[in-house]
Amino acid sequence: MGKVKVIGATTSLFCTRIEWALKLKGVEYEYIKEDLRNKSPLLLKYNPVHKKVPVLVHDDKAIPESLVILEYIDETWKEYPLLPQDPYERAMVRFWARFADDKRWSSSSFTQCVFGAWGACRAEGEEKEKAIQSAKESLALIENQINGKKFFGGEQIGFLDLVIGWMCRWLEVMEKVGGMKLLDPQRFPVLYEWAQNFMEVPVISECMPPREYLVNYFQASLSYLSSLSANKQ
Amino acid sequence: MGKVKVIGATTSLFCTRIEWALKLKGVEYEYIKEDLRNKSPLLLKYNPVHKKVPVLVHDDKAIPESLVILEYIDETWKEYPLLPQDPYERAMVRFWARFADDKRWSSSSFTQCVFGAWGACRAEGEEKEKAIQSAKESLALIENQINGKKFFGGEQIGFLDLVIGWMCRWLEVMEKVGGMKLLDPQRFPVLYEWAQNFMEVPVISECMPPREYLVNYFQASLSYLSSLSANKQ
């Protein structure tokens, strides 16, 4: 099987998906916690281009970029396949995974950051409303992909569930920090039910960072950003 | 084999890679030229989320996003494999393909657009120098991946060659429009030689849009953008 390490950070929603995939496939790994404010020589060695987590290290071969890592995991360990077999279904999963990731960390549009949720935390007034609206439009598009199934992957958790799974904790945290509701069970009953089903799987919920830890982290980030912008004025 | 259509546009460097892949695999297809200033109902039907070219339509199933399309083509038609077999090598190809695409159309940074080349066309003075510098840094990283081989794919053209192949024409066009040199044979001898090898393959060069057509198009775009910014002042 070879030695497997994951370089990650608790607050990064890109890292949890890697741990979920390895756990679902029964692959043992060592988790190396990275301090993102003071990046380690190990991270800089293994991801010199982007200098970002997560990085998967398998027998000293390093693979950065979470979507690339997920494909590598699925191709290397065949138990519990994450992508469907049919090429068209695989293409659709890859399309929506990229959509979800682009919408999530789109640095080109402040309001769309983390599906609009982080933008909505930071913005006020009309800007905040716009970000909330944008988040809800993206959630509606994503919800459509469940299409009567229990998970995006069908009867069991698949690739897209892992890519979108951060919502079940981070979105709730953003809602609390930003004082708003995004994943409203009335407006998105199917996605809301999916989130319940997803969190009921022990491998998934055990790997989620504690809610209060993330709330404190994002509240502190928000205060810091506010102080920066207050100093500018 | 089923009916295959490509919805594309001559000026889009994302589309040519799809035609190359189909031609290398011997897949016949119908090319549907899209007018990007007046998008057709067909495009809006087949790519309602992004409304962008290229779209591959295979037996009425539509697949948007060029990297997703390339994977679909490689999985559907097995002749002339584009991705390597080894999972780690596949991961590295996917990593550099995403790097190349992100660097190319990074809307977050104007100067980095098209590997910095389009940014360098539009900018002046210090900004232009910065864009040129950024382009050269990216080219150096990409050049390292050839690693003594004839093509990125080895002895024959592979996935990454198709993703980066636009350089052999578009970069040259940008250099002419912007009055600068980026792919300098002295500075990048390996990448320069790769470009010669790539363009010598008939399937590749036959599909490249005519140089003068692109020069006229990008010169007109530049004039239009200049007039817009002159009107603002």
UniProtKB/TrEMBL annotation, chains A, B:
Q: What is this protein called?
A: Glutathione S-transferase
Family annotation (SUPFAM superfamilies): GST C-terminal domain-like, Thioredoxin-like
Reactions mediated catalytically: RX + glutathione = an S-substituted glutathione + a halide anion + H(+)
Query: Whose protein is this, by species?
Result: Ilex paraguariensis
Keywords, in A-Z order: Cytoplasm, Transferase
Q: Which GO terms describe its molecular function?
A: glutathione transferase activity
EC numbers for this chain: 2.5.1.18
Q: Which top EC class is named for this enzyme in its record? A: transferase
Q: What job does the chain carry out?
A: Is involved in the conjugation of reduced glutathione to a wide number of exogenous and endogenous hydrophobic electrophiles.
Taxonomic superkingdom: Eukaryota
Occurrences of domain GST N-terminal (ranges):
2-81
- Gene3D superfamilies tied to this protein: 1.20.1050.10, Glutaredoxin (3.40.30.10)
* Subcellular locations according to the entry: Cytoplasm, Cytosol
Is Transferase set as a keyword in this record?
yes
CDD domains linked to this entry: GST_C_Tau, GST_N_Tau
- Grouped into one coarse class, the protein's main location is cytoplasm
What protein family does this chain belong to? Belongs to the GST superfamily. HSP26 family.
Write out the GO cellular component annotations.
Answer: cytosol
